[in-house]
Amino acid sequence: MGRHQTLMPMLPGMPDAVAGRPAKASARPPLRTLDQAIARSHDIIAQALDRYPIVARQALVSGGNDSMVLLHLVRPYLDSSHHDAVVHVNTGIGIDDTRQHVRDTAAAWNLPLRELHPRDSYEDLVLGQVIARTGPNAGIRAVWKGFPGPAGHSVMYRRLKNEPLQRNRAAIIGTHGRSQKVLYLAGMRWDESDRRFRTAAEIDPDGGIIWCSPLAHWTNAQMREYRDRHLIPRNPVAEHLHMSGECLCGAYAKPGELDEIAFFYPRPPTPSAAWKSALSRPGSRPASGAWPHPAATSPSPAASPDGCAPPARPPWPDRPT
After folding, report:
1. What is the signed CA dihedral for 160, 268, 109, 318, rounded to 10 degrees?
2. Which in 19, 151, 211, 274 has the greatest CB count within 10 A?
């Protein structure tokens, strides 16, 4: 649930604003019409391009309806080099319809698509078969075991989403992160949730990556108006489940969520009976917060994810719209 509270129905052309001052904003966002919000988005992108030595521009698309608004808005920027592209992380535990929606939209808009894949699978993570590669537990302990509750989100995010994005960055600029940067255009918004209100920033440099959220100031009403104005194709998965369905790790799943998914998509990619059976064997006890029961308290991971702290800036919503 977002922070914005609409007191009356928003009509096209009416100004709107995020309620309050976001933690990473220099000031409280002013009232803006949709056209003014669009202009501000282009200003944010221009600032990032002027401030940093960008050699590649890539739009991160989860497949949710918000990310399609982002992609439509930033299309004109994806023509500066052969590295410019739409980027979708195929976590391996998403709904096929969402992946196909991304592919179809990229093709319809004549945009190159890079579909990234994580090195470690969700199944291996759940079964405790991913051993730390760096840090004090390298070669000794699993980074996680069991279905994740909230405490396991950072592990799942880093292994399933951040790792392929970092490899993608390395493939473009190698070790030249000081003199070359990759611009990741993401769809995070302050009005999206309390968490995004605290963590999202318009421009957020991180080594060789420049995270840019040109929609940060957009309200939910402005997103709806833009979709209606430009007839943005909607993802049926998002319409049914109110999330993109590109990552079903279950870290923040609500009770009964798996049943809800199965109602619309009878063959969800996770979790399989075989994994549950493996986790029920002696010595293979799942985490107490095992999905789909996140209300229980999850234990700390068996080992830190190779020494990484929980992510401060996920590149796209972990609870996509």
Report:
1. -40
2. 211
Distances (CA, A) of 95 to 90, 255, 296: 10, 19, 26
β-pairing, 203-206 with 181-185?
A: unpaired
Q: Which amino acid is at 50?
A: D
The answer to whether 30 and 17 have CB atoms below 8 angstroms apart is yes
Q: How confident is the model at residue 63 (pLDDT cuts 50, 70, 90)?
A: very high
Whether residue 292 is predicted with pLDDT greater than 70 in this model: the reply is no
How far apart are alpha carbons 28 and 313 in whole angstroms? 20
| Whether the Cβ atoms of residue 252 and residue 318 lie closer than 8 Å to each other | yes
Over residues 120-172, the pLDDT tens digits come to 999 999 999 999 999 999 999 999 998 888 999 999 999 999 999 999 999 99
Number of Cβ within 10 Å of residue 272's Cβ equals 12
pLDDT in tens, 4-24: 444 456 777 789 999 999 999
CB–CB of 214/185 below 8 Å? yes
* For residue 271, cis peptide bond before it (omega within 30 degrees of 0): yes
d(CA 85, CA 182): 11
Q: Which fold has domain 34-279?
A: Rossmann fold (3.40.50)
Q: Which amino acid makes up residue 161?
A: K
User: Contact 78/204 with Cβ under 8 angstroms?
Assistant: no
Q: Tokens in use for 133? A: 């590669």
How many residues are recorded in the chain? 321
Label residue 266 left, alpha or beta by phi (over 0 means left) and psi (-120 to 50 means alpha): alpha
- Residue 230: which of 79, 102, 45, 105 has the closest Cα? 105
